[in-house]
Structure formats: structure tokens, C-alpha cells
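assembly run, all chains below
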Amino acid sequence: MSTEATADRLVAGEWSGGAHPYRIGHRKLGMWLFIVSDTLTFSALLIGYSYVRASADQWPTPFPFYPSIVFSSVMTLCLLSSSLTMVMGVSASARGDLKAVRKWILLTILFGIAFLVLHLIEWKHLIDEGLSPFAVPAEWLHKWPQASPLFGATFFAITGLHMFHVFTGAVYLAVVAARVKKLKHEDVEISGLYWHFVDLVWMFVFPMIYLLSVDFTP
Amino acid sequence: METHAESEHEHFAGSNKLFISVWFWLLLMTGIEVFLGYIHLDVRLMLTILMGLSIIKAALIVAYFMHLRFERLSLVLTLVPMLVICICLLLVFFPDSFRSKDMRYKFNPPPAAEPSH
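ok done. output:
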């Protein structure tokens, strides 16, 4: 048999059923495809935000060092650390050490909840100042007279959708931790994929929403 | 059904030391980003640097935490190029944002500097 024919046979074998061509299970492939589509959702939102900001006459840059930047930096630290604990949980799961898996996942959830609490406090600061999805606080209009009212809409939409992802991620991980004995290693890995994705999205939201809107006015 | 306890020797490449060093680099780059937020730079330059750093961070997370570096190349080639192309396609609309700024009706037009007769 020529080498070409052998190659044909191998490829057909790989893709003709009964095998995992990507060497991952169908559930993990499903999660990857979900992550791809969710990436496009967040990309569209962030690009929409950039579009609105670039076309606005004036865009408020209202975030002071304290509380906004300090809070959001600590939140970033929480999410990054939760990713580390999650990856530790997945490697414990590969070893079959289920007790350690539970411990690491619970730690991950705790970091996730810390993120949510800090973010909600940060939202409350802004809402108390008078920020809403359709209007900026009157005080801001003194500093930025032509401030686009779309600031609140983009801010709450993007951070709100991300917060929802963190919340569902925490619930998902709690279910995984509770049922870890019945689950396969790959299922733990899949929940890890989702959690890391939520972390990854924040790596773009944090600089684009917060660091590009630092308040320099005296 | 095969449960978790039975499959004890799963393969999960990467040592804890590797993951901790990835975490350290991610923190370092976040620190640099926060620092950059407090230097007065042109917003476009700033955006470029921040996005560059964020893409490096995203790549580290995907490669090591999400384990894509240790998966088959066919999976990487299925997921990554189409995502990059789709995001670039979203950016097609972007140049219009600069144009719409000038097209908008102005409520308070600046006083025209016309020579008086």
C-alpha cells in the first residue's frame, strides 16, 4: 500500500466515528464551542462600547483611585487567584484526590464570591452617586459638560453580564464540588474551562472599562 | 458507568510550579497595567499597550490554565483562527464611529467665526 493510501485510511479511521478526533470528549468540545460563542458576545459588547466612546463628544473618566481602582484591582487579584486554585483542583482531580478537589474548588468559589461582593459594593458607590443606565450623575456634568449618557448603559451592561457569568460559575462549581464523586475527571476539567474563561473576560473588561477611565481631574 | 473514583490516573500535564509561575506573570502584567493607568499617555497609545498586555494574559490563561497548549493541534486550529477572524470582522464597523461624531446634529453649535461686513 502506498503511503498516501495509508494516510487516507488513517484519516478516515479517525473521523469515521467511534474515535475522538480531537482527543477530548464531546462534553469538553461542547464547552469549548460555548466559550468561543461567549467570547464573541463579550467581544461585540466591548467593541460596541469602544464605538460609542469613540463617537461620543465627551466621555466621562470618573474612576478615582479610591474606591474604584483599588476595588477593581483587588477584584482582579481575586479572579486571578481563583483561577490558580481552580487549576490546582483540576490537577488534584487528575491524581484522584477528591478531598483536595473539594477543598480547592471551595476556595475558588470563595474568591468568586469575594469578587461579586466587592463588585456590588463598587456598583452601589456609583448608583448612590446617581449613575444609571440612561444618565450620568449631575455632579459629573460639571466636570464633563457634554458627557455621553451612554456611559452608564455600557458600564452596567458589560460588568453586569460579566458578574452574571461569575455568579453562574460559582453555582456551577458548587454543584461540581457536591457531586465530585459521581463525576469523571473530564467534568471537573470542563467546569475549570468555564471558570478560566470568566477570568479571561475580566482581563479585557478591567483595562477597557476601569483603567481607561481613571479620573485625573483635581 | 465509569465514575471519578475508578479513573485515577488521568493525564493532566503541567506542574504546580508552572501554574504558580503563570499566575505570577499574570499578576505582574496586571500591576503594570494599573501603573500605566496613572501615567498620562495618549489614549490610543495607552489602548494599544493595554490591549497588547491583555492579549498576552489571555494567551497565557488559554494555553496553561485552560490547557490548550497540551491539547491536539487540530483542536487549537479549529477554535482559535475562526475566533480571531470573527473578532476582526466585528471591527469592520469601527472606523464609522469617527465619522458619526461629525455627522451628528449639534444642539449648541460653536459660534461661526465669520467676518462681519
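Chain A touches chain B through 63 residues (CB under 8 Å).

Residues 25-213 of chain A form a domain with the Four Helix Bundle (Hemerythrin (Met), subunit A) fold (CATH 1.20.120.80).

not gonna interpret more than that til we talk
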